[in-house]
Amino acid sequence: MSFFGMGNNNQAVNPQNIAMAEQEVEMMSDIFNRIVRSCQEKCINNKYHEADLTKGESVCIDRCVAKYFEVNQKLSEHMQKRGEARGGM
Amino acid sequence: MERLNAKEQEALGQVLEAKQLKEYLRMYSTLTQNCFKDCVQDFTTNKLSKKEGECIIKCAEKFLKHSERVGQRFAEFNAKQMSS
């Protein structure tokens, strides 16, 4: 088996692929940070009576994350509808 | 996400490592600011009181656990998205 000469060139690095993957990671990271900040404001009591999350805070966080994604989805659909209504403008 | 070959995955891995470090530092600085804002009120002295010190630690723990939980729900949601 030879590693040189002919053979498929699938070990080449396509910088575009990496850039796209990086963009996607960046986007996910951004959404994550926004959710952390938003749900902290809505769910976490800032008196810090204890170091653990209370049951109430835990449940709030779960619901907060779910709703955030739902808002994201809803707006995505809405924007799409608007775009179509204007004839794709 | 596009399928990346081994070399591309390696290159992406390095980029992600750098990003992870940056994220960690950003979180650390957010944590400091948040916990300072919520816990430190007493400026009759330039040393943290015992109460303030304890508050800071609880604040940090709470935030980190919060962030962890969001991470779990986030990952679950993404897994569901990808399989649907």
Task: Give the total of domains of chain B.
Answer: 1
Briefly, what CATH class of chain A?
A: Mainly Alpha
Name given to the CATH homologous superfamily of chain B: Mitochondrial import inner membrane translocase subunit tim13 like domains
Tell me which oligomeric state these chains represent.
Answer: heterodimer
The secondary-structure element order of chain A is: HH
Low-confidence stretches of chain A: none
Domain Tim10-like (chain B): 14-76
Subcellular location (chain B): Mitochondrion inner membrane
Membrane topology (chain B): Peripheral membrane protein
Main location (chain B): mitochondrion
In short:
Chain A is mainly alpha-helical.
SSE layout and pairings?
The complex is a heterodimer of chains A (89) and B (84).
Chain A (H helix, E strand, L loop, with lengths): L14 H29 L11 H31 L4
Chain B lengths: L5 H34 L10 H34 L1
